[in-house]
């Protein structure tokens, strides 16, 4: 008796090709899905970093201003914005007397936020807290108008606005990604000067 | 058997492999997303925990700070037994420094968040200004004396005469108080722990009498360390203006018919102060307060004059540290707005020295028909005894707390239910209170506060912790804030006379209050501007006409026109016209009188 | 005695009798008129009758005012109005006589009251004589000083030209009259008061300068003399006075005048030998600039250097940007100007230029900036703009005005009560 086709080992070329094609399709889909997923995760993570950085920087600036002496705040013009602020902080008591820090300054220098101690003096100390600050606050264009509707005109990426005993701090960080995108993150905070 | 092999050989393929691969792919995806979600959640929780820890630390500071105002120590819980608030832990440590300052350190833990904040506060106690008119020895009042009160924060004495505020005077001593016939005491008398009150017939005391629980101990005068090397003895025709600053003289004397003006802000220390016959001493506190310290003797001749440029009683303070036996004689003619403190001296006050403010001394001889008006604004109420906040800062927290970022309850091995809530975790103190229960019974308690049940208290009558009062009876409330006419605010603003005129003309007719304010404005409006405003608001009421007459801003002829337009004048207005200083010119006055 | 002497004596007696009889008769004529005076409406008629009854002899009406303190106010008024109806010279005669006498102090106060009622600027010198002290070298009684002040105020208000005359009289006046004279001058001169007072400084003695500076301070508080460079220059000369108390007073006046031009000199005073001068100069600098720098020269000099460099190098550019630059340039210039603490008057002037721009956002920014300046000139600038303001800018204008009022009020001296604490409680 001649062996039937069902008893033959192996696949036909068509079957192989079909199987290979289907497998390839499935694997391609899977790979695409994985790639999208990783891409989304990557984007999400990329967005988290500037937000984390912005929040951390904002917290740092806020705590410095909260502990400062209102009378030493400079510039002290209310309701106009500025990209630098000078202050002295409370250091508590020493030998029963109130002690205040040396003058400190937080300023925007290009795209960097710099903290300086004793600004302008021979023993000035400087620390750069970040170099990712946008030149202008999000939504703002240098045209003499309040483009982003926050009441300020042409404000920089880091701006301080004094109002009585409160300081409104606005910060926009901007970071270019490897894929050429730019991620921008804006945070705002209103802090009350406690001293 | 062959059948089986044939069956086996028929069942071949990669479906399982594909399934496994598919499941693996999905699992990897799921794991990846789970990881991402966990990461985001952890991040958000950490951020929230950090913010919450900061807020908890602030809450701890606030609780401790308020506790200082209630005579608490400021300490809340401890590292071993912190207070619980929400889902976090906190404790507040206190460090007392020289000069009475207290440093508070509040450490808070919430989830993975940690924060330590610091605050420096200066607790305040009641000032001696709250004693009213007080002597540490027995107080004997001469006949026909008037002692009453007013509140300079709410207006002038004249405005408050015969109102409730006029009836809150405080007269007291650590010993006996004797009130002679004809005395009018609009307020209460507080005698010493063993003192008595002797009320002669015909004396009136509207507020009753009460006894102190403990004698007042008057702190000594803290004289500033200014060294006097010269004396200032002035006699001359032109007034002597003493410039502001810190000054010290051995003798400060103003000679016969001479005038000296002390200009604030000033701290002046003198050994002896003398005012001669007809001399005048002016306390010009327009630009700042004046504190005068007299170390040895103070003598104001009967015909001398003392005056203050403002009616802010806290602006002029006279401290007398003269020892017993030295003459401290306020004999000048004066309407004196200020506070006099002489804990070791016997003070003599003549009937023509009318004092608005407060007086605390060892002994007082107030002449018959003397008048003193206690300024309620001088006495601090417990509402205003919040500690003075001097510094706030973020403190570097201890490494042992900062590095471990796990659930604080687990890390510290504490049971949430076993810890005290924030409001209950204050340091224990000796509590001395008198109170009424819900049944109306009056009770008192002296002991540890932790052993006292506050739910028994329906009405608190008196309370102190470790000897410092946190509740006193008869605290008066603040006056109602009276809504003001916005135009009155406009008059009191910094607009120039012309600008104000334009505004008032545009708003005419304006209220009487606004017109009266315009007439009395300082700086005054120009005569023509004020005249235009009044003109546009005819007819004027009697109160406005009175203000116009009293206003030095209006010229004689402008006022004449207004008065003629409203003639015949009401008797009180005519009276004011005739008494006006500077007076109307003779022709203007004749014209006005002719129209009556 | 010779017959002629007897006759002369008899004639003299007769004349005396004749003069006294009518005098007595005139006194008796006055009495019923005064006694019958009931209501204020009768005063003019009684005054006329009194004037007619004395036959032109003013001293008959003046004397009761002096010697009869029991007269009621209406009676005194009638006598004064009667005097006003007599010939002027006749009325002035008894007043001049009172000025020459010192034995009846009340006479001078009465004379001042009469002069207040009917005097003119021609009688300013007489008023100053009447207001002088009885004893040279002493002060005048308080009531007399008050009476003099009222009299001078009335005379100055009655007709123009009195202020200039008083300024000429003050340097020669009795020292005891200077205080009321300066007060009356400060009120009567109105907007010129600061200039008039400052003009007295160069020739005055130290004691008088102190009085003038005190009065100038009061004027400056009322806003008078704020932009008068002449006043500021004259006050600044007192900063170098040998009497350091005058320097202290001058610091206070310059602060109230908001004289930013005095800042360099005030900084120099931070190194003065007198502690009160240093302290007052520092207080003035702090209030003028709003800076919380320590009371030492160096930090202030460093700030001044920076500020002056800006004015020298950037101010013109800012001004051009405000007027003709783009909106962005104008906004940036407004921001820059807002930071300047020196020469606030120039800042306000410059910002006013920006109010004329057409861009609403720039104008709104300028209004906000003006509102944040602690200077009364900014208030004036806002007022001037008010009439031209477009409707959408009016809320911003109002906010700026309110904020400025609050800031100007907030610079008032905070008066704190530092009274010893009670150590025990009731």
Q: Can you describe this structure?
A:
The complex is a heterotrimer of chains A (195), B (596) and C (426). Helices cover 28% and strands 31% of the residues of chain A. Chain A is α+β, with helices and mostly antiparallel strands. The N and C termini of chain A lie far apart (106 Å). In chain A, the strands form 3 sheets. Chain A has a 4-stranded antiparallel beta sheet with strand order 1-8-9-10, covered by helices on one side. Chain A has a 4-stranded antiparallel beta sheet with strand order 2-5-6-7, covered by helices on one side. The longest helix of chain A is centred in the N-terminal third of the chain and has 54 residues. Chain B has 596 residues and is of the alpha/beta class. Chain B folds into 4 domains: 136 residues, no CATH class; 250 residues, no CATH class; 42 residues, no CATH class; 109 residues, no CATH class. Chain B is built from 13 helices and 32 strands. In chain B, the strands form 4 sheets. Chain B has a 20-stranded parallel beta sheet that branches. A 5-stranded antiparallel beta sheet of chain B has the order 1-2-3-4-28. In chain B, α7 packs parallel to α9 and α8 packs parallel to α10. Chain C has 426 residues and is mostly helical. Among the domains of chain C are: 122 residues, no CATH class; 96 residues. In chain C, α1 packs antiparallel against α2, α5 packs antiparallel against α6 and α19 packs antiparallel against α20. Chain C starts with a helix and ends in a 16-residue tail after the last helix. About 4% of the residues of chain C have low confidence. At the A-C interface, β1 of A face α19 and α21 of C.
